Amino acid sequence: METMSDADQTCGMSLAIDVVGGKWKMHLMWVLAEGPVRFGQIRRKLDGVSEKVLAENLRQLEAYGVVRRELYAEVPPRVEYSLTPLGETLHEALAPLEEWGDKNRDALASRPGAVVG
Q: CA-CA distance, 1 to 23, in Å (whole number)?
């Protein structure tokens, strides 16, 4: 009898949340969807993220295979981040969530404790 691994039994939603969970990862996905971008550019676009947290989140997304880190042999060295094909499909999957948020912005903003920017 064939047994299923824990990964096979894990809900797909749980797997997706593991990848994009946390305060900054979905924001990173939107920035990276615009095309290759350098670390400093990402920091400027994501107001409030520390260098340490940004680097950690980029490493985690890279480990999942949704972000590519490309180092150019230049002086000074240049590093660009972009979505991999897997990351592009994840970005496409997140688009309906963004649409839902946009559509329901007013209703959500009126709730106690809502953080709608």
A: 42
